[in-house]
Specification:
The protein is an alpha/beta fold. The protein contains 13 helices and 10 strands. The chain starts with a strand and ends in an 8-residue tail after the last helix.
Length: 297
Amino acid sequence: MEKRQFGKTDMKVTILGFGGAEIGYEGADQKTVDELLNGALDSGLNVIDTAECYMNSEEMIGKAVKGRRDSFYLFTKCGHEGPGGKANWSKASLLKSIEKSLKNLQTNQVDLIQLHSCPKSELEKGEVIEALQEARDRGWSRYIGYSGENDAALFAVECGAFDSLQTSVNIADQKVIDEVLPAARKSGIAVIAKRPVANAAWRTGSKPAEEYHHEYWDRLQKLKFPFLELPLEESFAIALRFTASIPEIDTMIVGTKKPGRWKQNAEILERGPLPKDQFDAIRKIWHDKAGDWQGQI
């Protein structure tokens, strides 16, 4: 699988990474997570990304791969106390959260700790950044990053404190491509794409039951990409390859609780970037119809 340089760090990451939200929020069992993660690592994946607030995701990941810590890069996020908890941006709370994550993940150090959807107003105060810097100084994380959107993401890129940015980018969420990613490339910050297939919000042909997917469904009804009329396997592949074709992106975080899905996604990406005319056509439709849509948290 293709590997890309992760910003200015010493990491070379696979273009496809594993996102831990689904296994937590959708109630995967430990046996499934064991099979999923070990199969992915055996096949070459080297990025696992999660967060303390993703229910029991950290604990399951820690159990599944505790004997393989040297074979992958481990990323997590802080800022929300406990599973599904409310935001708390105090320095003490953040450090407590990071320490808990290390215990959950059964490791002494993660490769990247990220502020999780922290508002720009909190970033500007500086305390949240100081907390991550202290965690790095304590040896709890090798690098520090920011996960979020819009003005906060741009501030995180431009302030010079972070090694990486994780942000939403996909066929239904392209604003960041024009306004944030060029700044990230200029500064040398690594970029992690979350929601790289727009949650496949079109997959059933009707509006998803979960409110979490409604915004992308509504956007796709307006964008009307012709390729979404193709069979799901083909349309999904185009959406995934679109995001992988964006040059500033170093890795894409895809969540699943189906062990066979990771291999299917890896095979899709072996086809390489989308042809330029197809990529440009998707970008043109976005520019023509999107208006001032904001990045989705």
